[in-house]
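#dry-run=false #mode=assembly
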Amino acid sequence: MELDQKVEIATGIDSLAQVTVQVGINLKPGQQLIVLSPDGGVPIETLPLVRRVTEHAYRAGASLVTTLYADDFSTHSRFRHGNNESFDVGADWLQSGVARAFQEGAAGLFLFAGNPNLLAAEDKDKVARASKAHLRARGPMSTEIFNLRTNWSLTTAATVAWAQLVFPQISPNDAVERLWLAIFKAARLDSSDPIATWKAHAAKLNTRARAMNALNLSAIHFRGADTDLCIGLSDRHTWTSVFMTGENPNGVECLFNIPSEEINTVPDRDRVDGYCRMTKPLFSDGVVIEDIIVRFEKGRVIEATARTGAEVLRGLLKTDNGACRIGEVALVPNSSPISKSGILYCNTLLDENAASHIAFGQAWSVGIDGGLAMSADELLRHGANQSLIHMDTMIGSAEMDVDGITATGQKIPVMRSGEFVEELASKA
Amino acid sequence: MELDQKVEIATGIDSLAQVTVQVGINLKPGQQLIVLSPDGGVPIETLPLVRRVTEHAYRAGASLVTTLYADDFSTHSRFRHGNNESFDVGADWLQSGVARAFQEGAAGLFLFAGNPNLLAAEDKDKVARASKAHLRARGPMSTEIFNLRTNWSLTTAATVAWAQLVFPQISPNDAVERLWLAIFKAARLDSSDPIATWKAHAAKLNTRARAMNALNLSAIHFRGADTDLCIGLSDRHTWTSVFMTGENPNGVECLFNIPSEEINTVPDRDRVDGYCRMTKPLFSDGVVIEDIIVRFEKGRVIEATARTGAEVLRGLLKTDNGACRIGEVALVPNSSPISKSGILYCNTLLDENAASHIAFGQAWSVGIDGGLAMSADELLRHGANQSLIHMDTMIGSAEMDVDGITATGQKIPVMRSGEFVEELASKA
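#status=ok
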């Protein structure tokens, strides 16, 4: 890497850290900050970003910043040498500790930066069991996060193995640089004032969500290549973006995904019917699941096929009772900057913001009107799905048409050929 | 570093990891293992040792190995940019999580490898407050450790900053190499079968401890340069080594310090009188405390002076009510291999095994007969001191004479000129 490129990357990393701390997490003086990953620890390789995050957090008044790291070699070591019985064990003590910290007011930063292929060569059964054990262990922590009980954010960081998967034709160094630059662009850091840019962008997404709410829909209907899917919405659904303007329980505004292009809401877990072809592959613990077609009946997946990885897909959908139902439906225009990059990132945070998507598993309670104050039982009564998993799968494309359907059966155009209709487009 | 030196270091690191897992921790199949540091996280620089430990742990049947890392840059960042109020905050959520894991049967490995000078340039008041906040946070975890409720061990790893402090005249690379070689020698890895060597050495230390117990002492008297110190022993004291032969609550043998050369027991916290000159400097959060002289009356320090760092020393002795009393007295022959190296390691684990020592603060309940099953109140009734700190300070030297004193006032020679008298020497 040339010196000026190194400077550009370092500057971008600092800017990403600053935006994440100040707008994403919106860290308040006196809060602890925990940096971790949805999978557990963050790769040690993300140290340059973690250090910038740590400094920005202390400058913003953090009382203590603690980063939980993971080391790929150690993860592999378990699969190479561990006893078979060990794969049902998770770090409950650690995840419960994080849950406690969130309950006591700590803020969270999740870095979604792992190597999607890390466990590709390992035994599939052990991988699935270890993943499920981790999902169980992090359950109490996830509850805090899905209910937005504290201010938190999720962002990403380029790592060599991931970059090589995205850009296999170029050198590892060049691949990392190119991935960082793509992340910076996706995170809108190329503007003169990224913090102002993010505040404006988030406000526009919220305006679009309000416009969707004004339509007062009962269902939403996706039509495209191999797709004819009608998704009933919760009777209390509300469209939101990832920008919480203080209605979350601790009252601190936060923007819980950086980048983000979506508005989303909560489907009725029992009213999803039809079929769809996923428009991007899924990456699950080193397995690439391609050309997925899923068929729903009364909310449940009754058929799931894929050209590769079908067994893993079906295993994921059997994680628990809620894993074969959806907890989120999200709309992203095909013209989103991430989509326009034309890159398949093999990373949910980036790929889900390039296309409309549905998520198998857990619903966000913020997508239910009043949901943040509801018990799990109340949320369920309003159709909000519950599961240990939350697996976003992309269904949007340049061919997708989306209609809203009101309680009286009126059809209202929402998207045509992958873009919001003019009235909704102008909201963002 | 030359190739053959690199191989020698890598081989030594692997051997240290193996001895630590198999003899130190004596990890049992199905146990989780947590790798951490008494100060919090282990330096990321110790990754080569952590990876070997992780592999040996999985080979021994570990269900999950979790390492808590710390990053010196991030630690500095807090002191440079953090709010003043932040320094009274510790990671209670994390340390309590570790305590829970130990309660539920996880094993522990502590790496004592930090840079002794890390915080030398930082504000002394903030350093002291941050240290106390950490001691409070780790309290529940320390309780598990001091009461040996699980099998654990403490060892060390060479890092650049530490090595440069020990060997300031040579290059950083050479310093790290020399420190590793000194650690390997101290850890008796130069024998043909280090595991058998450790088992034999530990058994000999236990034999020496039993010989001390047979003397049925009431007190122990140190005489040397500027030293005339009489330490009354608990009415239930028992001499032990760091080798627990299964009498610990979870019944798993472990050797909780590698290396170790000491036998030790629990003083009566109210019966310590006289004065002593410490024979090695103390290192506390970047401050070197040199030429310490301490005077006791009825167990309490009534005067503490030092040529450098006296304020920090007096601050430490005021941490809590028990910090100015001692919880441990330990005997180490001046001819111990670590002492013979002639190196001042600036690292408690190594330096304390080069000289007889006393520890301010918390007592080990294993040094009280039946103490592992006693409540904190019962332990206190038998004179075992309680504190958030446990600070070993070296008093042994080639000039030190030590006598045991029985309840009837009989004097029994224990050490002469820093060496055990023949009868006790032959026990080890």
